[in-house]
UniProtKB/TrEMBL annotation:
Pfam families: UDPGT. It comes from Camellia sinensis var. sinensis (China tea). The keyword Transferase applies. InterPro entries: UDP-glycosyltransf_plant (IPR050481), UDP_glucos_trans (IPR002213). SUPFAM superfamilies: UDP-Glycosyltransferase/glycogen phosphorylase. GO terms for molecular function: UDP-glucosyltransferase activity. The keyword Protease does not apply. Belongs to the UDP-glycosyltransferase family. This is UDP-glycosyltransferases domain-containing protein. Keywords: Flavonoid biosynthesis, Signal, Transferase. GO terms for biological process: flavonoid biosynthetic process. Residues 1-21 form the signal peptide.
Amino acid sequence: MSSVVFLCFGILGCFDPPQLAEIAAALEKSGHRFLWSLWRQPPKGGLAMPTDCGGDHEGLLPEGFLKQTENRGMVCGWAPQTAVLGHAAVGGFVSHCGWNSILESLWFGVLIVTWPIYAEQQKNAFEMVVDLDLAVELRLDCRDECGGGSYGCGGADVVAAEEIQRAMRGVMDGGNLVRERVREMREEQRDFLWKVGLRVVR
């Protein structure tokens, strides 16, 4: 059963503490198993990159969150995204909608919750939700995307835990029509590559 939600926002994607608290609250209340790839926000006003927090979550997450979710969730730094999305346990992907992330999720048939942070990601999110009906909307646009000058670290527009929970339910609950479309797309991609591969071999 695909029962795990994977949250990953790319190597430039990070959030302010108030937003991290809302994500944590959504995960705690949802009851879903999860894997959360978390990056530490750089100092405000500079051009430093976010950093991989590894196992050091000091000051990032609400007190008690890790204890409350220790039997069903894991928070890490960098994660091997392709390997994670390819695992049968993963059923949903809360993503910044970078192009590679979209291609990988479609290849493995994992339904995306859209949360674009910067650059072309809002266009990708719009196309996935509105044009193609292949994702579940949380956000379609980037709001306050540069949070004081640092890469991809949103500040002012805090997405509430209830909204995040609703979107996660949208990808994890059974009988989802969008999920069926994603599965169909997965099969179409594989069939196409199989046929092209046969032509190349011949």
